[in-house]
Design a protein that fits this description.
Low-confidence stretches of chain A: none
Mean pLDDT of chain A: 87
Radius of gyration of chain A: 13 Å
Strand content of chain B: over 45%
Shape of chain A: globular
Oligomer: heterodimer
Distance between the termini of chain B: 37 Å
Structural class of chain B: mainly beta
Structural class of chain A: mainly beta
Number of helices of chain B: 0
Radius of gyration of chain B: 13 Å
Shape of chain B: globular
Helix content of chain A: under 10%
Largest sheet of chain B: 6 strands, mixed
Order of helices and strands of chain B: EEEEEEEEEEE
Chain lengths: 112, 110
């Protein structure tokens, strides 16, 4: 069983569309994250949720909205997609935020 | 099945001494390896990387060693400083696919 699963793995869509990426973890972790990996392989944190509550919200366009229906899920919805949104997005979870992270395999988003 | 393992969840080192963080991988197709550093409440920041065609890469106090036959890489920090206290992630990639290890929490004691 995959511990942190992201779907879809690949997503190609046109500018202006609205899309969602889903993330689910079956580890019982309290904290979940979304990261964006840029072309230089840097991971930039976007959001962090602890027990369904938003605890980190970095400066990302408000077109990006995270949704956590329960502590096992953290979905990322993106409105009005732009070319610059093309990247790999990683979901991750951890128990206490200090270690024992598990990352998903990433979602490669391509906006055309 | 974890393709990238960091078997030490935590490590404590005295200031000024060497910190050695280890990482093992199982997929021989990985061709690029990276280390990230993460402070609490922040995202991981890229630290240093190494291509599979090399066995060593150095950047200031940080050196990464790659032993392909053993499928092992390590990050050396010399000398260790209190500001190095963080969680360190090892990551491996095959093309555009990345796999991250679970992280090792390093504590550098003054």
């Amino acid at each position: 069983d995959t511990a942190v699963s992201q779907t879809p793995k690949y997503l190609v869509t046109q500018m202006g569309n609205d899309k969602s990426i889903k993330c689910e973890q079956n580890l019982g972790h309290d904290t979940m994250y979304w990261y964006k990996q840029d072309s230089k392989k840097f991971l930039k944190i976007m959001f962090s949720y602890n027990n369904k509550e938003l605890i980190i919200n970095e400066t990302v366009p408000n077109r990006f909205s995270p949704k956590s229906p329960d502590k096992a899920h953290l979905n990322l919805h993106i409105n009005s997609l732009e070319l610059g949104d093309s990247a790999v997005y990683f979901c991750a979870s951890s128990q206490d935020g200090f270690g024992g992270y598990t990352f998903g395999s990433g979602t490669r988003l391509t906006v055309v | 099945d974890q393709q990238v393992k960091q078997n030490s969840p935590s490590l404590s080192v005295q200031e000024g001494r060497i910190s050695i963080l280890n990482c093992d991988y199982t997929n021989s197709m990985f061709d690029y390896f990276l280390w990230y550093k993460k402070y609490p409440a922040e995202g991981p920041t890229f630290l240093i990387s190494i291509s599979s065609i090399k066995d060593k890469n150095e950047d200031g106090r940080f050196t990464v060693f790659l032993n392909k036959s053993a499928k092992h890489l390590s990050l050396h920090i010399v000398p260790s400083q209190p500001g190095d206290s963080a969680v360190y992630f090892c990551a491996a990639s095959e093309g555009q696919n990345f796999v991250f290890g679970p992280g090792t929490r390093l504590s550098v004691l003054p």
